[in-house]
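Kindly go through the following sequence and its backbone structure tokens. Advise at your convenience whether the structure tokens fit the sequence:

___
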Amino acid sequence: MTTIGLGTAAIGRPQYINIKQKTGAEDEPFQLSQFKQQGIALLETAYQSGIRYFDTAAGYGIAEEMLTDWLSGKQISDITVATKWGYTYVAGFDPNAKVHEIKEHSLKKLNAQWEHSKKLLPYLSVYQIHSATLESGVLDNMEVLSRLAELKNEYQIKIGLTTSGSRQKEALLKALDIEVDGKPLFDACQLTYNVYEQSIYDIVAKIKKANIKVIVKEALANGRVFANKKYPHYLPHYTLLYELAEKYNTGVDAVAIRYCMDSIQPNVVLSGAYNEETLMQNLEALNFKLEPEELEDIRTMNIMPEFYWNERTALTYN
């Protein structure tokens, strides 16, 4: 069965790539200590609500630190923690920062970020390359790949990768063939999949056959599943999504998440909730199941990857 996990990008740093929505909170002065307390409280709420998969990254501000602090002293054995290396958060919690993160897939960066990420042991189960694109060259870097294999063997963890961009399908297919010392390296992949970006739809079966766990991120297309006048080309899509939301007495977010669950049946779909209200709304996806004809209708919402990612690139940090 597909489960819902919690991604921590939105609670580890005050801004994330998304559709800007005026809430009033952006007018309040940022306080790091309060921000951290709120994040830890949401982790506890998520656990009490049944979430057992927590995804974080070295580049998510203080997200790894929050998870480490939350887990400290706990006596639980039923959770999976996944983290990622390859991005460094550089915004310093400044809402006006011009640069928020820097990508680097070097062996030096891997080793440096592992020293911090390993504090999540023994809960840490999945260690991932953050946004492994063909352009970054990380999938051809044998120094890095060999080091990941060493960590896998030494700490008995799974090695994964996350994918983004219009060529994520190619990157995933390349990753399937990567071996170190005659053994497949990757055990998990965290891919972008939602009602608009469905480019990996026809290779999911191949990924599963290779015994690689599938985790879905950006199920809400960075907020683009919600009706927005800035995207009139999605109007027919909005109509369908809101009709289904009304039918199942839930929100559009739950419909979008449920589509990911039912259409490709991944191991985990990540919620990117930043507070308890949005988390509870996301979890409503567990309360219903889409009909086959409804899945087919949403399947037709698929757009060209190049268009999707160009549109996403234009989004700002909010």
Notes: The CA atoms of residues 96 and 317 lie 10 Å apart.
